[in-house]
Amino acid sequence: MRSAIKVAASDMVATLLHDAVAGETIEGVALREDIARGHKVALRDIAAGERIVKYGRAIGHATQAIAAGAHVHTHNCATDLSTTLDYRYTPHAALVPDTPPAGRFAGYHRADGRVATRNEIWVLPTVGCVARTAQRIAARAAALVGNAVDGVHAFAHPHGCSQLGDDLGGTRAILAGLAQHPNAGGVLIVGLGCEENQIADLLDAIPPARRGHIRTLAAQMSENEVAEGVALVTELAEAARATREDCALSDLVIGVKCGGSDGLSGLTANPLVGRISDRVVAAGGRVVFTEIPEMFGAEQALMDRAIDAEVFDRIVATVNGFKRYFLDNGAPVSENPSPGNIAGGITTLEEKSLGAVQKAGHAAIVDVIDYGAAVRAPGLTMLDAPGNDAISSTALAAAGASVILFTTGRGTPLGFPVPTLKIASNSTLAMRKPDWIDFDAGRVLTEGSDAAEAALCDILLATASGRETAAERNDEREIAIWKRGVTL
Asked: Which Gene3D superfamilies match (predicted)?
């Protein structure tokens, strides 16, 4: 088995695949110290101030002279990111498979042509004041509806009041997106009555053609809001009865996300998900990726994949807009990676970003959508949202993703409104946390990328056909909304 990975011929560092000790030879270089798995070793002497290259691109600069065989990490490498940039459009040809690959699943056909991977009833509170009420309604109704639907779930959140302008608009857009998601065969919107996020305004954000499966309840106007809510959910569940039918890979909308990354995420799990992304795009399906702050340092490679100059300009505006969001709030654009990322071997945001964007594969980027908006076109779409796991995954679901592929090197139990496959970057995590992890991307190193891709695609299709994910088995289903404005 390989002891380290050097990605590009120009790389100055290699990433270790196992814990190594001083004196061990890695890529022809003797280690000067013990170095943990996922961390980097210098393959040659690096001068102070010199750019350090991994993935064929700079991940920062040396803050001191680094000898060949030394550990390269936060003690001797620093970011070069600082502010917004000007970019030039230099389009590259997309490198997706020429022949759309086969792959079918059993999903639910909706009247508007979309396809669902689950047929559930969702209870959505307009405001945090009735979040617990929504949960009580869902729990009591679930015990009554039996197997009429795949489940009844409430999605609590603390927002919907004391918000203004775009901040309130973002909350409303996310809830409207969830309310019209194809996986929701029926939706009960529970309001309080006096909140800023009024039920009528939320309904106005949903096209009339997609309101037929929605019922509403204003708690202040009801004598017994829980009993009334349970009755409405029971009616919705009976009306939502449906049967799975044969569907093509092109019917899938997948969201891709990484969280709790380590030094192997950009070498195993993320490239593997990128291959699945390319497979779905080649078949005519839709892939949505996000985490804009985790593109900083890798954004030019994405911009070069814009399908045209208009999409390029929108990518630039989104990336620089997010940088300005950081700067306007007095935060550096490089305020990343997290402590867990650093412990796992990621040193700078450039390194994290270059690994993270691998999830988006090699297809052309056909569209850029705002936070809270829905995916509009087949192909690869960029979504404006932060890197926070819960916020970005909720935004992917609201955009229409019917399955999320979530890679992780450190592990997380968190689940979201749609089936979320947890993909471990390393076999140690997969073996240690089988109740969290659905797929071991460490298989890339032992079986090869082609075999791992085929295995992951099989699990994706089985999940789309109804196989429960680890998060679903653990009843891990949450949403989080991006709070950006003042609180009244």
From this structure: 2.30.130.110
If you ran DSSP here, which 8-state letter would residue 33 be given? Answer: S
Q: Work out how many domains the chain is built from and give that number.
A: 3
Whether residues 296 and 412 share a domain: the answer is yes
> What is the domain range of residue 286?
248-473
pLDDT of 94 > 70? The answer is: no
Q: Tell me the pairing of strands 13-16 and 4-5.
A: antiparallel
Which residue in the block uniquely carries the two structure tokens 């980027």?
Answer: 365
Of 241, 263, 284, the domain-final residue: 241
Express each pLDDT in 186-238 by its tens digit: 999 999 999 999 999 999 999 999 999 999 999 999 999 999 999 999 999 99
Select from 257, 242, 108, 123 the least CA-distant residue to 187: 123
In this structure, the answer to whether residues 308 and 424 fall within a common structural domain is yes
- Whether 374 contacts 363, CB under 8 Å: no
Cα 353 to the center of its chain, rounded Å: 14
Q: Both 154 and 214 in a single domain?
A: yes
CB-based contacts of 339, cutoff 8 Å, min separation 6: none
At 334, the pLDDT band (50, 70, 90 cuts) reads: confident
- In this structure, the strands spanning 420-424 and 77-78 are unpaired
**Residue 259 CA to chain centroid, in angstroms?**
8
Instruction: Residue 426: name the closest of 448, 413, 445, 447 by CA.
Output: 445
Q: Which residues contact 256 (CB under 8 A, 6 or more apart)?
A: 273, 277, 287, 288, 289, 359, 360, 404, 405
Q: Is the pTM of this model over 0.70?
A: yes
DSSP E strand stretches across 126-220: 151-154, 184-191, 214-218
Closest of 334, 351, 400, 345 to residue 373, by C-alpha: 400
pLDDT value for 247: 97
Residues of 231-244 as b/e, b for ≥16 C-beta within 10 angstroms? bbbbbbbebbebeb
